[in-house]
Amino acid sequence: MTAAMVGWAHMPFGKHSEETVESMIVKVAVDAIKDAGIEPGDVDEILLGHFNAGFSAQDFTASLVLQADPALRFKPATRVENACATGSAAVHQGVRAIASGDARFVLVVGVEQMTTTPGPEIGKNLLKASYLKEEGDIPAGFAGVFGKIADAYFQKYGDQSDALAKIASKNHKNGVGNPYAQMRKDLGFDFCRAESEKNPFVAGPLKRTDCSLVSDGAAALVLTDPATALGMKKAVAFRALAHVQDFLPMSKRDILKFEGCYKAWGQALGDANLALDDLSFVETHDCFTIAELIEYEAMGLTREGEGARAVLEGWTEMGGKLPVNPSGGLKAKGHPIGATGVSMHVLTAMQLTGTAGEIQVKNAEIGGIFNMGGAAVANFVSVMQAMK
After folding, report:
1. Closest CA to 113 of 334, 325, 286, 328
2. pLDDT per residue over 344-364, tens digit each?
3. Which helix (H) or strand (E) holds 5?
4. Please, which pLDDT band fits residue 99 given cuts at 50, 70 and 90?
5. How does DSSP classify residue 129?
6. How far out from the chain centre does Cα 93 lie?
7. What is the CA radius of gyration of the chain?
8. Residue 10 falls in the annotated catalytic set
9. Is the pTM of this model over 0.90?
10. Active-site residue (options: 10, 16, 84, 211)
């Protein structure tokens, strides 16, 4: 165990036109430091996860965290970016700072404000997480990228519309109990399965309910070393971390295998000396329902092409053998890019400390996180367990 989370904060995700990137950063930074029971001056290093890519005119944002308290002035602060895995990239960098002994307390903040950007610009900004040289002209932006993946998967393994609708309805049902979720409504399988005026096709076989939400929001956490953590009021340790980066062009990979995801899970579980069956739950990156489906296979829950079994047979439900996305996932919670990975770690820590309320997984002991940037390009896995 190289580091532990000892404090955290999470604001509701959604449309926050009254907020700014700065105000959201300040809000969660103040709350996370307070939750950890430390003073702002105790923070040794600051890491900010902020994708931006045109969403905010203020592109130099690392020092905005210092606005949370004058005592943070002159602390080293760095902005971290790795597409939709930006938040986890910041968390993992924070863990390394603790493990190296360079810092005793690290503050990690993730933030994004997306909804104040006009619709066409949102699609253009998100498409920057793809290989523009080859994929920049795909219709429907980043949804088009995953629509292309879904088309290829359907051609190889058959129509998966039932499975995708089940993933969407599962995650929306879970999201009802998450006070931080952008959409707290149980849409039901039938609504997610059928094309309708309110649920039109967006790209390939993907409908609106197959796509994560455009969101504003922020989350933050405080890291320290395991010895210090034992003296804190709560502590959730990192048993293992893995980061696997793959080729950016989809043309250089078998896009249906999510090989980076597979390798990251294998590395993290191996380092933790655990099997997938040892996990109590998983928070995985369901930017689109087809992503969650393929991730079932990449994490080893099913064989290739059989991911549908996991959701259709109830394995990934709250009461199943491996609950997946008890938070509601990106599908219901929302997906403010830079905040997503930090949010996943905060909600996992809540599960492992028994403070997740209505979304609590019974007897949760070990949690797994998979956060992905691009189409399985940046692949981050964390395996976590409560220390106290």
Report:
1. 334
2. 999 999 999 999 999 999 999
3. strand 4-10
4. very high
5. G
6. 16
7. 19
8. no
9. yes
10. 84
